[in-house]
Design brief:
mainly alpha; DNA-binding transcription factor activity; DNA-binding; 197 residues; single chain; 70% helix
């Protein structure tokens, strides 16, 4: 197994253990044993437990962020495609589990919560801002917007009640179809000539 595959396996094991036992209930020793690596390997590969948790969050987000291809086509289509991937990620079982974990541990581990936010939601809002800035100005209902502010508002609209219902275990994770419908309805609120249905 090459180095990248070993790192990926380590992060997958860590995510499973964090989701099962919580942040405070998971130790580097247990992660190393479950991943069948030396404890030292964990430290040299990703760092301490907080670094490992952030790497888990970042790995999950890479599935969405690393697929963004700016200027790959119609900016509205690019925004819609990213929105669908974002909604599916943020409302996935893994992301919801990690969000619950961070919410529960934030008072005890505020630095962990801040790093989770920076490597998760803040990162995605930054991508949204770039995608919004790529839109022709006449496509936005908001004249001369601050793209960073609009990106935060769009992120909130995309997550909103759907995220809350997932956090409470009321709804299942969205399918590709339901995520696309939700993103289309959301973009209807900010775009002139929203994406084709």
């Amino acid at each position: 197994m090459d180095r990248a595959a070993r790192r990926d396996a380590l992060l997958e094991t860590a995510m499973r253990l964090f989701l099962t036992h919580g942040y405070g209930g998971t130790t580097i020793e247990v992660i190393a044993a479950e991943a069948r690596v030396a404890k030292r390997t964990v430290y040299t590969t990703v760092g301490d437990k907080a670094d490992l948790f952030v790497a888990v969050v970042r790995r999950l987000g890479d599935r969405v962020v690393n697929t963004v291809a700016p200027d790959a086509g119609d900016p509205v289509s690019d925004l819609h495609a990213f929105g669908v991937r974002l909604v599916r990620l943020m409302l996935s079982d893994e992301a919801i589990g990690l969000h619950r974990l961070v919410t529960g541990e934030a008072a005890k581990f505020p630095e962990l919560a801040a790093r989770h936010y920076a490597n998760g939601p803040r990162r995605y809002i930054g991508v949204l801002s770039g995608l919004l800035a790529a839109l022709p100005p006449d496509r936005l209902l908001v004249p001369e917007p601050d793209h960073d502010v609009l990106a935060e508002q769009l992120f909130t609209l995309l997550m909103g009640e759907k995220h809350r219902r997932r956090m409470f275990g009321i709804d299942p994770a969205p399918t590709a179809t339901t995520a696309a419908e939700h993103v289309t309805r959301t973009l209807d609120l900010i775009l002139i000539e929203p994406p084709a249905r």
